[in-house]
């Protein structure tokens, strides 16, 4: 199916690996010109060459930069002042005990997972609104709506993205621009792949046997009982970037393999009135 994206330009942050790379590849299949980003200039260049040789009708460009650095973000804006699609994908994550998360850790997560996406959106959104066309996608996580408690510093910053996306979506009222958040569950990025491959070293098991055993032991609540393939997220992102998704406005979109039951629950208006007794505010 032609997704109506041929000839568009997209910046996918953190697109040399994992989910970001899969999104970039799926967009390139639709004829989108990619701005490939990562901190390692050589790795970005390799990814650009890989995409160019697989999808020669497109013109991928090297947009290497450490996007947590404001100066490097501004240099990127000078070089690439226009994009039709912005996918805010970069994000750091690590299992941590709450007691070990000091101000420095909070600052690092806040800067990387939130401020970077905010800075890029603030720059690219106004031109999209002027043109009455454009897409911004935030890659959050199931941790945004159901923190597991294993990485509080991560879950908080992912919840912040949900809130920011909804606020930005309000600015798109009456336009064809959309701002949405995609919340993947456990996904088979290169990092996760290595962990599974290295698991159960004492036994002769195929990758899928290891994966099944790992899921049953560590993620029993998953209804999928396998990791999500980055390409599956890439295909969903293509739909969200396409003109067919205009009715998704400020939506939190879960692709988590049935992993999570959200703790942010919508209650009916009447229930709110009854519970709070502040009818005038509702
Ligand atoms: N994997 C999962 O199970 C999962 C689940 C839910 C949500 N997510 C979210 O999905 C997103 C991608 O995750 P992933 O697992 O695919 O990550 P990943 O494999 O670690 O890839 C991260 C990408 O971002 C780049 N990057 C990191 N810091 C950067 C910076 N400061 N400036 C520019 N580029 C930077 C990396 O390249 P360099 O290191 O070379 O810079 C790489 O290309 C994250 O936001 C994550 O929170 C992941």
TrEMBL record:
Entry's InterPro entries?
NAD(P)-bd_dom_sf (IPR036291), SDR (IPR050259), SDR_fam (IPR002347)
Query: Which CDD domains does the UniProt entry name for this protein?
Result: SDR_c (cd05233)
Could you say which protein family the record assigns here? Belongs to the short-chain dehydrogenases/reductases (SDR) family.
Q: What is this protein called?
A: SDR family oxidoreductase
Q: What is the species of this protein?
A: Paenibacillus faecis
